[in-house]
Amino acid sequence: MVFFLFAVAAVITVISAVKLSTYADVISIKSKWGGLMVGTLLLAGATSLPEVTTSLTAVFLDNPDIAVGNVLGSNMFNLLIIAAFDLYYRKEKLFSRTDVSHAYTASLGILLALLVLAAMFIQTEASILWVGLDTLVIFGVYIAGITIINKKTGNDSSQEEAAPTAEDESSPSYAISLKHAGIGFVIAAVVILGAGSVLTIAGDQIAVQTGLGSSFVGSFLIAASTSLPEAVAVLVALQLQNHNLALGSILGSNLFNVILLFVSDVGFLNGPIIAASNTVHQITAGAVSLLAAIVLFSVLRGRKKAIHFYPWPSALLVVVYFITSYFIFIF
Fold first, then answer.
1. By CB count within 10 A, which of 106, 125, 176, 246 is most buried?
2. 110 pLDDT tier (thresholds 50, 70, 90)
């Protein structure tokens, strides 16, 4: 029964994510935000809602390993998603068709991942009240970083796609009004929020029944399931030829997910959550840092006019992902 509930929640998540991405495409076309900002902020936040409910539910169940593993595992899986689609649509050369401003987001993602990695190794008990000093620093760096990014990309994003192009008007989603898209986006986000809670509760029971352990289930099974909205969002965005929306949703989701460590720490009343988690998450945090660096390299490499053997960075990312997953399983 628990596997059935897990599967049903995953299916509902996928269906809602299709709607979410379609409405996000409308908002990016008909508003002044553009694909980059809608992807990095709006769609990224909405597709990360399952991670929010998963981590907070795990904290409520007093299972810090699932809370931490879900965040890091989801970030790993998100980067796998963009690499896999880049390989599948390699003729389109995804990273060559996106804005160079994504390099700012990717750089902040690497910095946050390295801070998490350092926190995992130190595992300090230092805290303010019950909230760990490490997650407070991570949260502060996120706020500062996202503020700098908004200032650097603000002028470009305010002009991006301000007027609909002929390609935009030929999009199937163009017939949807901006108001309809906004309402539909909120409804789809709420459905995803509920499905995320079911995924966590069922995943916690699977960890108990199978004996796989919370660290592996959180970093792989639940993380992969809660990343389903990102996978569907990227697929739909690519089909709609909105490459900035596709990449922005992944990079933005990874930034948003890291902040869930701070949010989870606030809800975890038994001390700093990172100090209470399993040291196996050091592997996951290190992998996220490495995979994020590969994506940044791909974004910068995409600026070149002549690119030889374009797919190799994404192929390397996929290999590193599965090697890391194996080490998480055996440890």
1. 246
2. very high
